[in-house]
Specification:
single chain; alpha/beta; five-stranded parallel beta sheet; 18% strand
Length: 161
């Protein structure tokens, strides 16, 4: 049986409408999609891994062929452990492509059987980044159109604490 498993990895700190758009579209392309949320301590995420996993479940947990998990190892090790053959990455701009292209080449050298598939979000989400959303929220701005309402609520609580 040829079961197409794809992994969409990232820090998702927090999950944005752009991420949500890509998850929903990627889930329609594969038999099983794993939203793999990286612990990423070097990035000093604003939310804990458990909080980011919980937010993702609140936002996209309704997708039947989606599994949402946290991980804290080398991505290619995680991909191999899960039996995936595709890594999904989102691209917003040319600057994203340069970094992602380099990363895809490195990943292919480690695990040649894995392909990287690039998806672009809908044009209404092209400019959204989790970094910008965190900064707007930190400064008391309105992030309602960039994130799901449950994420907005957590951002507000996180920045008033």
């Amino acid at each position: 049986m040829n079961h197409r498993i794809a992994i969409y990895p990232g820090t998702f700190d927090p999950i944005t409408r752009g991420h949500e758009d890509l998850v929903r579209r990627a889930a329609s392309l594969f038999d099983h999609l794993i939203l793999a949320i990286a612990e990423s301590p070097a990035k000093q995420p604003r939310f804990t891994l458990a909080e980011r996993v919980e937010m993702a479940r609140e936002v996209v947990g309704d997708i039947p062929n989606l599994e949402i998990v946290g991980f804290n190892c080398l991505l290619m090790r995680f991909v191999r452990e899960r039996g995936a053959k595709v890594v999904v990455r989102g691209l917003r701009a040319v600057s994203d492509f340069e970094y992602e292209f380099q990363m895809a080449g490195m990943n292919r050298s480690v695990y040649p059987d894995v392909e990287t598939v690039f998806l672009t979000p809908g044009e209404q989400y092209m400019f959204i980044s989790a970094t910008m959303v965190r900064e707007i929220a930190r400064l008391g701005g309105d992030v309602a159109k960039f994130v799901h309402p449950t994420v907005e609520k957590r951002l507000r609580a996180n920045h008033t604490a």
